[in-house]
Design brief:
Elements (H helix, E strand, L loop, with lengths): L2 E5 L19 H10 L6 H11 L4 E4 L6 H12 L9 E4 L3 H14 L8 E4 L5 H9 L4 E4 L1 H10 L9 E4 L2 H6 L3 H9 L6 E6 L4 H10 L4 E5 L9 E7 L5 H11 L4 E5 L3 H13 L4 E4 L5 H13 L4 E4 L12 E6 L6 H8 L9 E7 L4 H11 L4 E2 L5 H20 L7 H11 L3 H12 L7 H7 L51 E6 L9 H12 L9 E3 L4 E6 L3 H7 L4 E2 L2 E2 L3 E2 L4
Parallel strand pairs: 1-8, 2-7, 2-8, 3-5, 3-6, 4-5, 6-7, 9-14, 9-15, 10-12, 10-13, 11-12, 13-14
Antiparallel strand pairs: 16-18, 16-21, 17-18, 19-20
Helix pairs in contact: 2-3, 3-4, 6-8, 13-14, 15-18
């Protein structure tokens, strides 16, 4: 029997207009909430927290970006026994990225609980540190199903002490083929546990899981609310993480902004990027949690009156920042959730003015971009990195705009100085003008060749980098079938076999890992998808032999891909993929 409790984001209740202190949370959890700056619970939090605190199983239907992670993390942390050094909480997430986000949230909310430890378990990463964290008694495990099943095959009693189970984005887990793994995980846990399921949709498959594994669940449904930022023009640029600074410098060359705020995730990044921009002549300052309040006020005042044009800030440090002249918001680092994105870009486009929001997206963050577009109901257009010709045109345009009012100034008092200088230097007015232009443009090239030489090399994005499916290769992603479940696996047959014909556009690579190392095709697929930033269909056949394996990878961009995979480990052993020479 499921009892439904439904609400929409626009309906106020007594709890919603109060604060977290009315929800019965543990004092240490409340202290952590205050530290991260949360003030009012969202609708999903208002409805879910009391139910979870009361011990009910629950089905929560809510979109990403509604605050659902806090909706289950806060009450669960309030109820665990921090003194017990054993696994008590299991959160299952469909992808590596989401698992890391949830684990980070748990760590933030448990910051005032010194004896609570969190471990994230996902494919494509070494198992050693994960095993060590479990053995040391981490109370909270956040895992992708496939990697967790791998752990269970080594330690069947791993989940025997679990008291709380959360299935986050359950519909996504089923889309990725994790149903079999979920059943293995359910069977490895005690029946006497509290189970909470969150899903954006509730298809029959999800309801089937609820009927089988949840006990009289309460249902909370939060109607989706489209967040719109109509006056803000949004654009994104795909770029590798190590190329962000250079990408920022190029984009600033062509963006016509009055004032800008750039958002990054860490204090160190505010300092690094502000220093890089200052070196290029921009009037910029960093704003982070280490900056004293009086200095913070000076930075904001300088941004307001034009002494500064750019501030690089963390989300926490930028709270309450309201400067009308901000025309651009630059998301240098991807925000952790869509709500943060909307809050960030809302600092422009105010008071009836148009604004512009730029977003740098690494291949692994492509999924979050899609979530942002879904939650805001708006497309974030893709732009290309400006080339030397575009940058040169922008420089000439800015110089023209700067000189135009001076040329039109009929009361210019420098006529006598002009005469003196041309006489003293023995040159024409044109020669003097060229010399003054050289002085004015010193440090910046104004020829195409010069601009090209100035620009750092940024590798173009290949098709292989267009997306990352996170942990979707971890059991949920199945390799192309060739002779069986494991893509042509040699199940222990002796003697060499002829490699199968290559797929079009692929090259064959070899690793020394095989069946004797306990490696299956799904393990290799998951590791390569996670660490290489590939889409699933970019990987061809995977053939497993006793002492080695062969994997078909895209020929385009192969060397860069192998470089990204050089430190990857599978089952605790180095992958060490190399191009396979069949001659």
């Amino acid at each position: 029997m499921t009892q439904e409790i439904s609400t929409t984001p626009d309906v106020g209740t007594a709890a919603e207009i109060g604060n977290f202190s009315t929800l019965g949370l543990h004092p240490s959890v409340l202290a952590a909430i205050t530290a991260v700056g949360y003030e009012e619970p969202s609708p999903i939090q208002t409805k879910s927290i009391p139910l979870i605190m009361a011990g009910h199983d629950m089905i929560g239907q809510a979109q990403t970006g509604t605050g659902k992670t806090a909706a289950f993390a806060l009450p669960i942390l309030s109820r665990i026994d921090a003194a017990r050094r054993e696994a008590q909480v299991l959160v299952l997430a469909p992808t590596r990225e989401l698992a890391l986000q949830v684990a980070t949230a748990f760590e933030s909310f448990a910051a005032q609980m010194s004896s609570v430890n969190v471990v994230a378990i996902y494919g494509g990463a070494p198992m050693g540190p994960q095993l060590k964290a479990i053995r040391n008694g981490a109370q909270v495990i956040v895992a992708t199903p496939g990697r967790l099943v791998d752990h269970l095959s080594r330690n069947g009693g791993l989940l025997s002490t679990i008291k709380f189970l959360v299935l986050d984005e359950a519909d996504e887990m089923l889309k990725l083929g994790f149903m079999d793994d979920l059943e293995v995980i359910f069977n490895a846990m005690p029946d006497e546990r509290q189970t909470v399921l969150f899903s954006a949709t509730l298809p029959a498959s999800i309801r089937g899981i609820a009927e089988k594994h949840l006990r009289n669940p309460q249902q909370v449904k939060i109607a989706s609310k489209t967040q719109t930022v109509a006056r803000i023009e949004q654009a994104h640029l795909m770029v590798h993480a190590d190329q962000k600074v250079n990408a920022v410098l190029r984009l600033l060359e062509v963006e016509d902004f009055d004032a800008m705020i750039g958002f990054v995730r860490t204090k160190q990044a505010t300092l690094d990027i502000a220093a890089a921009l200052e070196a290029k002549g921009y009037k910029v300052a960093a704003l982070n949690g280490d900056i004293a309040q009086n200095q913070r006020e000076r930075v904001i005042e300088s941004l307001k009156d034009g002494r500064l044009n750019i501030v690089i800030a963390t989300d926490v440090a930028a709270r309450g920042l309201d400067v009308p002249r901000i025309t651009h918001v630059f998301n240098i680092d991807m925000p952790y959730d869509p709500e943060s994105y909307v809050h960030r870009i809302g600092r422009t486009g105010r008071a009836g003015r148009d604004g512009r929001a730029l977003l740098l997206v690494t291949p692994r963050e492509r999924r979050m971009l899609q979530v942002i577009e879904r939650v805001t109901g708006q497309k974030v257009a893709e732009i290309l990195l400006p080339d030397a010709k575009v940058i040169l045109q922008a420089r000439i345009r800015r110089l023209t705009q700067d000189l135009a009012p001076r040329v039109k100034d009929k009361e210019n008092k420098n006529v006598e100085l002009l005469t003196h200088l041309t006489t003293e230097l023995g040159c024409t007015v044109e020669d003097l003008a060229l010399a003054l232009l050289a002085k004015t443009t010193e440090g910046q090239a104004f020829t195409l060749d010069g601009v090209e030489r100035e620009q750092p090399t940024i590798a173009p994005r290949s098709r292989d980098d267009r997306g990352d499916r996170g942990d979707r290769g971890d059991r949920g992603s199945r390799p192309p079938r060739e002779g069986g479940r494991d893509g042509g696996r040699d199940s222990g047959s002796r003697g060499p076999r002829e490699p199968l014909a290559l797929s079009e556009g692929k090259v064959r690579c070899r690793t020394a890992l095989g069946t004797r190392d306990g490696v299956a095709a799904r393990n290799l697929l998951g590791a390569i998808l996670n660490e290489g930033g590939l889409q699933r269909d970019a990987i061809g056949r995977i053939q497993i032999r006793e002492s080695f394996s062969l994997v078909e990878l895209p020929e385009e961009g192969l060397e860069r891909l192998l470089g990204k995979l050089k430190d990857t480990r599978v089952g605790g052993k180095a992958l060490k993929l190399r191009r396979y020479r069949e001659d």
